[in-house]
Design a protein that fits this description.
The structure holds 2 protein chains of 2 kinds.
Chain A: H1 6-12, H2 22-34, H3 38-47, H4 56-88, E1 94-97, H5 98-104, E2 118-121, H6 127-136, E3 139-141, H7 146-155, E4 162-164, E5 170-174, H8 188-192, E6 196-197, E7 203-205, H9 208-221, H10 228-245, H11 249-259, H12 263-277, H13 283-290, H14 296-309, H15 322-337, H16 340-356, H17 360-366, H18 372-375
Parallel strand pairs in A: 1-7, 2-5
Antiparallel strand pairs in A: 1-2, 3-4, 4-5, 6-7
Helix pairs in contact in A: 3-4, 9-10, 9-11, 9-12, 10-12, 11-13, 14-15
Chain B: H1 8-16, E1 21-25, E2 28-34, H2 37-46, E3 61-66, E4 78-83, E5 92-93, H3 97-112, E6 116-126, E7 129-134, H4 141-149, E8 154-157, E9 160-164, E10 170-171, E11 177-180, H5 182-190, E12 200-203, E13 206-211, H6 215-219, E14 227-235, E15 242-245, H7 248-256, H8 262-278, E16 281-287, H9 290-305
Parallel strand pairs in B: 2-3, 7-14, 14-16
Antiparallel strand pairs in B: 1-2, 3-4, 4-5, 6-7, 6-8, 6-9, 9-10, 11-13, 12-13, 15-16
Helix pairs in contact in B: 4-5, 7-8
Classes of the chains: A alpha/beta, B alpha+beta.
């Protein structure tokens, strides 16, 4: 299915890069930009010494976004130091999740990783104190109505997103892995008891395996996929790196996911990273996860949905039922988070607000434009 | 082939069609789609001298300007700008469609073209000397720019001065000149042959109209220029022409505030900006009489040449 999807051809096999025509490059850039993978693409080109084998204008776009990614990396490193000292004041460790963790730990997945917010994990018992201390230091919740505030606090795994008043950096503070009402019930203590310090810096990340499992959980439980392909690329990169550096990484991946009650999202990650970007998964790992395959009917349905929703949100990536698939997965994500007696009133409320009030979903989208971080350091 | 070579009906089929209309503006190729009549007509008028992109050109920006969906369209119709499907702005009232296209194109450039140091400034060339005119909204920068443009100066850009990180030269980005409020009538009266869009009232910047860029400036879009003068203009009612040289250090600091991506570019930004300043004489300018300003500035460029 890679015809018409140069982004997939390139993610599958970088040898296709020099064979692309100018117009294919144009489409590749558009798809990569929509998928938030343009700065990643820069590294693919440079790591393969192809700077001079691609159209000049294409290289300009890549270099241009690379400058943004570098600046962002610098900004994130700065924010990490600030956050560390704030959280240490309330005796909370700074535990980084996702992009910020990859950057701090200098993982391959951090190369060209654009991000729109910093995600951190704060132990539930310290969340109140941490939130207050963050507020004192300029990290404030966006003004949202009391319904949203209540919704986040009562039913979600994170507090409402915070933004720094001066620097405009966005911060997502998680206190657990999944919402308390979710079908799967991973124990956050298990993640917390295995965190790793990055080079005696006083800053922590999840363990290598937990990073992958956590990232997979978020991707396959979230209802929005505009960074779906990017997340797959992230995880595939983490796995490739940890497969080289961490003894028994592949052997322990499936058992650990089972222990955390998060095997299903891992299964989906392994399946769709193979299907979409031809990620290399060792046979024994595939066999180990095989016993947790969904029923054939369910798997067929999930294939239909995810192979659509995980493509870049770009007009060139719309295949039949793409929008329907995204809508269906949006509803599913809520269904996974909460039982129907909570879900139905919530969705009605959301639909009402998006038609007649300021929709929080729309605001979030706005923050995900190509230049959001570009704006931040200059504010 | 320029847009004017395309009959209106063919043009309209393209811009309203699925594949859109691809034109060149400065070093960028832009693909525009719109179903909105004011965008269709004003784009045809403003960009008539721009080249149509070659079939094998890599299009830099795919944009469209259309009504966003939703119930609100029945009450007070709005307009939205899409950069390849992404909505960087909140929607605006429907009648602001063409100005929104212009603001949107500015955003495409300023958010993605980091091969240039991008300054919020007009830039024109006379006698081989490029003159950079930075200035916030309301400073009289665009009025002066429009007047110089109509007085045989070469327009390089009205809003975005692009300085190549590679060569340090000013890269032309010749686009329509945006005028606001009283300056629209002043320029219309003074230069009756200038071609304007209709006036859009009640935007966040007041009334706005765009003036067509001269064909000769567009033709020279590939020709970079060397910055020789940096002038911070200010229109002050009834003030005599007053040009004061300022130290390069203060000019540097003032120019940083007018850059879109100075901080982003880090050391490279510093290097290219300081080289630019080093090659220029820097002034503040107060003016009220346009004729006097044009004459004096032309003379200043001759001195630069000497």
């Amino acid at each position: 299915m890679s015809a018409g999807f140069p982004i997939l051809s390139v993610l599958r096999d970088t040898r296709s890069l020099p064979t692309l025509s100018v117009k294919e490059w144009e489409l590749l850039i558009r798809q990569a930009r929509a998928a938030n993978l343009l700065a990643f693409l820069y590294h693919v080109v440079v790591d393969n010494d192809l700077e001079n084998d691609i159209p000049v204008k294409a290289m300009l776009h890549l270099e241009s976004v690379h400058i943004i990614a570098l600046k962002q990396r610098e900004a994130v490193m700065g924010e990490i130091e600030v956050l560390k000292s704030i959280l240490n004041q309330v005796d909370a460790p700074l535990i980084l999740l996702k992009g910020a963790a990859y950057i701090k730990a200098d993982l391959r997945a951090s190369k060209g990783r654009l991000m729109s917010d910093i995600d951190i994990l704060v132990p539930q018992s310290l969340i109140g104190a941490a939130e207050k201390r963050l507020a004192l230091n300029g990290w404030l919740g966006a003004q949202s109505d009391s319904y949203n505030q209540r919704y986040y606090r009562k039913w979600m795994h994170e507090i409402p997103p915070l933004t720094h008043v001066q620097r405009q950096t966005a911060l997502d503070v998680h206190h657990t892995i999944l919402p308390p009402t979710a079908k799967f019930k991973p124990d956050p203590e298990k993640l917390l008891s295995d965190i790793r310090e990055v080079n005696s810096s006083g800053v922590f990340t999840l363990s290598p395996i937990d990073m992958v499992v956590h990232s997979a959980t978020h991707l396959f439980h979230e209802g929005e996929f505009h960074n779906g392909l990017r997340d797959l690329v992230d995880m595939a990169s983490l796995c490739a790196e940890f497969g080289d550096t961490e003894p028994l990484f592949w052997e322990q991946l499936v058992p650990r996911a089972k222990e955390l009650d998060l095997i299903r999202p891992l299964f989906y990650f392994l399946r769709y990273s193979q299907k979409l970007i031809h990620a290399q998964i060792p046979n024994h790992c595939q066999q180990a996860v095989g016993s947790d395959t969904p029923s054939r009917l369910k798997l067929f349905l999930m294939d239909v949905l995810f192979t659509r929703a995980l493509l870049p949100e770009h007009e060139s990536c719309k295949i039949r039922f793409s929008d329907l698939a995204r809508w269906f997965l949006y509803v599913r994500s809520h269904y996974l988070k909460m039982p129907l007696y909570l879900l139905i009133p919530h969705l009605i409320r959301k639909a009402w607000m998006s038609k007649f009030g300021d929709s929080p979903k729309a605001e979030q989208r706005e923050a995900h434009t190509a230049d959001d971080i570009h704006r931040a350091p200059q504010a | 082939m320029i847009l004017d070579d395309l009959p209106y009906n063919d043009y309209k089929t393209q811009i309203t069609g699925k594949c859109g209309l691809s034109i060149m503006t400065g070093p960028f190729a832009v693909n525009i789609r719109s179903q909105v009549q004011s965008v269709i007509d004003n784009t045809y008028l403003m960009y008539r001298n721009n080249a149509i992109a070659e079939p094998n050109e890599l299009i830099d920006f795919h944009v469209n300007v259309d009504k966003p969906g939703g119930l609100r369209n029945f009450i007070s119709p709005q307009i939205q700008f899409y950069f390849d499907g992404v909505q960087p702005f909140r929607p605006l009232p429907f009648q602001q469609a063409f100005p929104m296209l212009e603001w949107g194109l500015n955003l495409c450039v300023s958010a993605t073209a980091n091969q240039y140091l991008i300054i919020h400034a007009a830039v024109l060339e006379k006698n081989g000397a490029a003159v950079i005119l930075p200035g916030p909204s309301g400073s009289g920068k665009s009025t002066l720019c429009a007047a110089l443009t109509n007085s045989d100066w070469r327009l390089l850009s009205d809003e975005l001065t692009l300085i190549s990180l590679k060569t340090g030269q000013v890269q032309p980005l010749v686009r329509p000149v945006s005028l606001k409020n009283q300056s629209i009538d002043i320029i219309k009266k003074k230069y009756p042959s200038a071609v304007f869009t209709n006036v859009t009232d009640d935007t966040s910047k007041g009334s706005v109209a765009h003036m067509q860029a001269p064909a000769s400036s567009i033709e020279q879009s590939k020709l970079p220029a060397n910055a020789r003068l940096l002038i911070f203009p200010k229109y002050v009612a009834n003030s005599p022409f007053n040009l004061e040289q300022i130290p390069r250090g203060s000019a540097f600091m003032a120019l940083i505030d007018n850059c879109f991506n100075y901080h982003l570019l880090g050391e490279r930004g510093f290097t290219v900006l300081s080289n630019t300043i080093r090659a220029t004489h820097c002034y503040t300018l107060k003016y009220s009489n346009l004729d006097e300003a044009i004459a004096q500035l032309s003379q200043l460029t001759e001195q630069e040449l000497a």
